[in-house]
Specification:
Blueprint: E1 13-18, E2 24-29, E3 33-40, E4 45-52, H1 53-62, H2 65-71, H3 79-97
Antiparallel strand pairs: 1-2, 3-4
Length: 98
């Protein structure tokens, strides 16, 4: 399981830990990932994802998982999220046509 947000693509960053004596040692900055269950209104089901806490705030700000996926670019989404986005687009198109 990689340390990458499935919705925003936020991943591990590296840098230096600088001591008082200015010695540098490599360190890792880990994203704040949480396992969550988000519900899709269009698909009428819930989905388990591993997302960052920042992404959760963004999903809430944009009005839910469906609105977030419709606005997100496919390059930054995980494979699971891209398949979910396709299903949301298809279901919303069918709802408009009906």
């Amino acid at each position: 399981m990689s340390r990458r947000c499935e919705l925003t693509g936020k991943a591990v960053l590296t840098g230096n830990l600088v001591s008082h004596s200015n010695r540098k040692t490599r360190r890792r900055y880990l994203p704040n990932l949480v396992n969550v269950t988000l519900t899709s209104d269009v698909l009428k089901r819930s989905v388990k994802l591993r997302v960052s806490a920042n992404a959760l705030r963004t999903v809430d700000h944009r009005g839910g998982l469906d609105a977030f996926l419709l606005k997100a670019r496919a390059e930054e989404l995980s494979q699971k999220a891209v398949e979910l986005k396709r299903a949301v687009v298809k279901a919303s198109a069918e709802a408009v046509a009906a």
